[in-house]
Specification:
It is built from four helices and no strands.
């Protein structure tokens, strides 16, 4: 679709650098890299965003932060044997990857 043009813009690059965010995009047409991120955002929207009215950006930000904490600490994943992400990492002594 847009092929990530906005991620290559100078203004976006400056904003991410100012926030110490590492940008990461795979080569064009390599969808497996994007699938995990798209799936996570899809779940977030389906489980906590849709069907609600937000009174402020602060309320939305607080709710997103709470959901991410829930997602990592409480929400079980069948693909991880019925453990939460944090439980699975602790059991397998895995450190989160930043790549």
């Amino acid at each position: 679709s847009d092929r990530g043009a906005h991620y290559r813009s100078r203004s976006w690059i400056r904003r991410t650098e100012a926030a110490n965010i590492i940008r990461s995009m795979s080569k064009k047409g390599y969808s497996p890299d994007n699938a995990a991120c798209e799936g996570c955002f899809g779940r977030l929207k389906n489980e906590m965003y849709y069907g609600r009215r937000w009174t402020s950006a602060d309320e939305l930000e607080t709710t997103i932060n709470a959901y991410i904490k829930f997602y990592n600490t409480t929400r079980i994943k069948v693909s991880l044997g019925g453990y939460s992400i944090n439980q699975y990492r602790a059991l397998n002594q895995l450190e989160p990857k930043l790549s």
